[in-house]
Please model this.
Amino acid sequence: MKLSDIQGDWALVTGASSGIGHEFAAQLAQAGLNLVLVARREERLHALAATLRQEYGIATQVVAVDLSETGAADRVRAALADTGIRVRLLCNNAGAGRWGRFESITVDDYERINTLNSTALVAMCHAFFDDLASFQGSAVINVSSAAAYQPVPYMALYAASKAFVQSFSQALHGEWKEHGILVQTLVPGPTDSEFDAKAGAYASAITQRDTPARVVRASLQGLEKGLPVVAAAKGTYQQRFFAGLFPPAMVIREVGKMFKPRESQES
Model:
């Protein structure tokens, strides 16, 4: 899929108020796509929409919704029901996580994270299938994480939810290609965004962050090549090799060392 061939069509981006989602909105607008912007923070979405309309002359639609709430995908679909908008590119970027010991985080937090990272992504794909299938060619970008490649102690649920995204998205690629829908799994590494602050990140062995701009460029270039998986994270080949060939006890131990909080970080 070349973005130049779908100028004037609509893309929907979740988590558009910051980070990778914000950058997807900017690069897609620059390519001439109209945008449905979805996130919780309505003021930020309207500010972004106004900026993109002014800079690129595109049309925008803002849908302020919390995708961690049950039924949120249906509310997004309903908000567009009378607009005449048909989504040709769906970018499921919204996600959340928590750093720390498993028992120190509430079940309510875990339910919210699991719903946002996994259930809402599935529901958005399901809700917009008819739109996507109505075009000669369309695409879905599901944002995973390099954390999907192995268990991550002290980020246990986040890594598990991204492993779900990884498996689900690649399986859906196999199903939907017959409908002319490319499902891409995007695998970023640690990225400079609000994610760490919201997730309660502490000092760890993860010291380098990629830029959202580079992650999004890699994804959109992958669309043009028809790639089912785009690994924007550095070193994923070595990571997969390590996780796949070394004993599980060793993998768990070594990854855990990277994320284990120090006593001073737990007080």
